[in-house]
Amino acid sequence: MLRSVLRAALIGAIVLVVVVGLLWSFQRRLVYLPDDGPVPAAAEAVAGGRDVELTTADGLTLGAWFIPGPTADAPTVLVANGNGGHRGVRAPLARALSSAGLAVLLFDYRGYGGNPGSPSEEGLALDVRAARDWLLADGGVPAERLLYYGESLGAGVVTELAVAHPPAGLVLRSPFVDLAAVGSEHYPFLPVRLLLRDRYPVAEQVARVEASTTVVLGTADSIVPPEQSRAVAAAAGQLHRTVEVTGADHNDAVLLDGDQLVAAVVDLARLTTDP
Fold this sequence. Notes:
The chain is an alpha/beta fold. About 40% of the residues lie in helices and about 20% in strands. It has helices at about 1-30, 40-45, 90-100, 120-135, 155-165, 180-185, 190-195, 200-205, 225-235, 255, 260-270, and strands at about 35, 50-55, 60-65, 75-80, 85, 105, 145-150, 170-175, 215-220, 240-245. The longest helix is centred in the first third of the chain and has 30 residues, at about 1-30. The model has no long low-confidence stretch (mean pLDDT about 90).
């Protein structure tokens, strides 16, 4: 009987070690879910859009769409995507923001939308910097008119950028406290915090952001618990407002390009133009 118990325990330990080893090796395939495309031309997806290329500090060329505003100094929104799909999925958001008088840059991270490279926290930090650099240098966007918008994982990307390069305003849609916190919700039986290579410490970093910050969340979010988004809002150093979309789940249309979401971005953009 004792031998059977010991044998079962040994087998269980071996299985656990193998599972943990596999998760360590392939964890980024669980975090990042890129869609290679095809991605349509910008003008086909958003009226007035044009295809542009971004160059990262480590030499990658990334595809992007720029939708100019009605005037040269119109507020501009740099959109950092979540962990799935490609920029084509965010075309409705770009159309809605463009209709509201804002300029928009949609881009794909490395490994997404046919781009070269493999995604990682360090890599995405370089990618979003390339997007910001293009807007300031090639897009002619005044720094005082530039807002960052981060969706889910993208909230971690733009919050880190906002600490290093403060924007005119920061919008975080469905942000998590940090990647390990949301990972633990979905894999409670694993030592997620010990295993993860990428951290995205949103709550920790948003406390250091000097720009006005708006947090948008869905009260029925099954991917990022609403409590985590509220915790990010509570941690924000310059919280402008929190917008709770009642009954909305993580990927519902109302959180992709719904009226409350768009109004929250437009409201923050007004701060860049008010005297």
